[in-house]
Amino acid sequence: MKRSKRLQPVVMHAKNKEQDAARIFVQAQQRVTDSEEQLQQLESFREDYLLRYKMASQQLGSMSQMLDYQAFLAKLNKGIGQANQTIHMCRQQRDILKQQWLQHRVRSQALENVVEKYQHDENKQLLHLEQMELEEFSQQRFHHKSD
User: Which of 17-31, 49-63, 72-86 has the lowest mean pLDDT?
Assistant: First the structure.
């Protein structure tokens, strides 16, 4: 069996690992995007709530209402801080997964290059053998005609 054929299962395995790593990387990227969108929503909601808080404070609302607004804003700020931490962790995980995918990709491409080289060498060898057989056949015909 030719070397290029023997390596095909190894190449397919490497290609499958590369595709799995790419899929996992894309999922991690989606988690980053989702987390960033969630943060934007929280920040937008906080801005709206701050506007309402300012309007309520101008209308001389009760002290308990003002404290409720402040407590809720503190919770929103805490949620925004946690969302920022989540984004940071998601980005770190995404970067690690990207590196893993790239490593699998490099390995897969290297194996494919080796197989291509083997195929090229095998084709070259085959052409050489065919040429030698053709020359031998021509010599035999020439000797047959001479006799």
Answer: 49-63
Separation between Cα atoms, residue 11 and residue 21, nearest integer Å: 15
Helix (H) or strand (E) holding 61: none
Q: What is the mean pLDDT of residues 130-137?
A: 87
pLDDT tier, 35 (very low <50, low <70, confident <90, very high otherwise): very high
What does the buried/exposed string (b/e) look like for 65-95 if buried means 16 or more CB atoms within 10 Å of the residue's CB?
A: eeeebeeeeeebeeebeebeebbeebbeebe
CATH number of the CATH domain containing 91: 1.10.287.1700
Radius of gyration of the chain (CA): 34
5-11 mean pLDDT? 92
Q: Is 136 among the domain residues?
A: no
